[in-house]
Design the sequence.
């Protein structure tokens, strides 16, 4: 279990967003896909800027993550 007090505010918000994303999609647990998607969510966030600076396409990465999350098995209720 992650100790939320050991995280920076930005990390804490990313974990919260990843958890919410997993719940919205009916996933029983938070996976790295959820966290990666949550990190790329803010348009002005550092992960998006780093990805772009490294030659990647943040929009394409976000779309690929969204597709992978949508294809992941669901559990009802999550």
Sequence:
């Amino acid at each position: 279990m992650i100790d939320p007090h050991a995280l920076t505010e930005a990390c804490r918000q990313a974990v919260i967003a990843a958890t919410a994303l997993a719940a919205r999609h009916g996933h029983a647990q938070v996976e790295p896909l959820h966290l990666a998607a949550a990190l790329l969510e803010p348009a002005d966030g550092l992960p998006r800027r780093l990805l772009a600076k490294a030659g990647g396409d943040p929009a394409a990465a976000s779309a690929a993550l969204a597709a992978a999350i949508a294809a992941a098995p669901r559990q009802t209720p999550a």
User: Anything to note?
Assistant: The longest helix spans residues 9-24. The chain has a mean pLDDT of 92.
